[in-house]
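Bug: token stream looks shifted between consecutive jobs. Job 1:
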Amino acid sequence: MKKITFLLFSITVVMNAMAYDATGHRIIADIAYHNLTTKAKLAVDRLLGKQGIVYAATWADEIKSDKKYDYSYQWHYQNLKDSMTNEQLENLYQHPVSEGEHLFYAIAQMKARITKDKKDTEALKFLVHFMGDLHQPMHLGRVEDLGGNKTPVKWFGKTINMHSLWDSYMIEAQNYTYTEYSAYLRNKFESAKAKYLKENPIASLEAVYQIRNKIIFYDYTDTNSYHYTYLFSNDLDALLFRGGIQLAKTLNELYK
């Protein structure tokens, strides 16, 4: 009986952890869905089902358990140095294979696949997810600490790592469902939406990179998690909203 109870508890913990990671991707996908053109929305719905962009947003993580997709594991991240100039970022984004086949490469490849075949459902599901990863700053982390996975931080009395803090815990701390968070962000940034729509992918990447460095160089001897949440909540909101807008712009262009 004890073994069964422990097993059920373990499954619950794992499922909750996966759900928190999923929330961020669904928020970005939902924001994108609300900003698709009529033509792009029809095309995406035909491939993924009505609002399927939201439900498919986690697919690229779910297939990590399938060995036939092992080749895509390194597509989820792009290792970056701490002191890159905007010109260096742009050059790497435009010539991603210079440092291997990672996130920038994957985004370019999925866009090329969809351009060639508008019915390439797999490429679309990958792209939806990777545009989310592009706006998660620890997916643009340091190679030496595996994007924050090897950097321990204190979070409300327990030790986690910096990557999971930004993958899960920061979003969890807002205590919204993905639909509530998406609606909140669309309302919050309504007056600034025109500015975000004018951004190209490079400008968006540069903004994410600035927040990434702010996170990395924060003084983590300050273990006041309420202070950390307060300090970074606006950055988190901007990352999610920016990700949704950039995903929408990308799909609107591909399915115009």
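Job 2, same session, no restart:
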Amino acid sequence: MLLLVRHAQAGDRLAWAGPDAARPLDGRGRRQAEALVVQLAPYEVARIVSSPAARCVQTVEPLARARDLAVETDDALSIDGQSTDGAALVESLAGNPVVVCAHGGLEHAVLDDPPRWRKAATIVLGPDLRVLEGLPPPDRSGRRGKAVG
């Protein structure tokens, strides 16, 4: 199964003075990233591929540490590339136990009828890129959810 993870909550884009790609997770986002470790524990993960944006990398870093994996960044998953190159990358990874962390919008490029994909939510995809399950943003306990909403 391929797991599409939307980056966790980041600081306000308008209040951030630096480049948007450098905007980090805020406190809530860091808690969400830590809780993903527990929420995604039942899933096999052999690779973690992320947008190079700081908020995406930071979202999957706790999971990478817990699984003793590296976070691989790929420009195809950047905001500018995800609708074309990012979709092609996801298609090439289909059927593999991979976590892909990206920005909102990728779901529309990959899926015909995507579920709502909130920050820190996960869409579980089968080998045919069919939605198998949606996990909402994890709460502090890291419990699994039933819907992406």
